[in-house]
Amino acid sequence: MGPCHEVHQVEKPITLVVGEDYPDKLMFRDVATGVEHWVQINRVYLLDMWEEADKIFSNPNFLEQLTSEEITQIRLDFERKLLDAKPLSRSSGMGFIIWPDQPTGTLGLRLKAALIQEPFLANTNTIQVELFQYIHTTTRDDILFAQITGRKLII
Q1: Burial class (CB in 10 A: 0-12, 13-18, 19+), 90
Q2: Angle, helices 49-57/68-84, rounded to nearest 10 degrees
Q3: How is the chain classified by DSSP, letter by letter?
Q4: For residues 96 and 114, what is the distance between their CA atoms, to the nearest angstrom?
């Protein structure tokens, strides 16, 4: 049996402070069941997409694999798509592939990365967000079976 993923709604507004580490768990309740759960946010920081693009396009491995004309074309295409990606509303956006900068967090658990797909000013100090859902994963190791032995069993 592979992992089973179950999505639960949270709908909890929170304020994130840019540049802050979050050593404490953030507690929340499942909207449907009222069961209390927690999430660990390790760090909140701003990312300059143009600076990140410069790093990618100046990477020596990237430069070795393509001609300068190909790199120029890819970069122009990337920039055009980034500039043309205008969300129709606050609930839409564009996606990026991201990963955490370290494998485990302050609690020793595997980290996942999340990206807020909205532009911010460079001097932004706080970000109003909503923790809108969480995914509970059950693996085969989480499931236990009872072994019952005996001559007569009435259920």
Answers
A1: exposed
A2: 160
A3: ---EEEEEEEEEEEEEETT-B--S-EEEE-TTT--EEEE---B-----HHHHHHHHHT-HHHHHHS-HHHHHHHHHHHHHHHHH---SSTT---------SSSB-TTSPBP------S---TT--EEEEEEEEEEEEE-GGG--------S----
A4: 10
- How far the first Cα of the chain sits from its last, in Å, is 27
Cα(114)–Cα(131) distance, integer angstroms? 11
C-alpha 150/C-alpha 142 separation (Å) is: 26
Cβ(36)–Cβ(27) below 8 Å? yes
The answer to whether the pTM exceeds 0.70 is: no
- Convert the pLDDT of each residue in 13-70 to its tens digit: 989 898 878 878 888 888 788 888 888 888 888 888 788 888 888 888 888 888 889 9
SS3 154: coil
Q: How confident is the model at residue 91 (pLDDT cuts 50, 70, 90)?
A: low
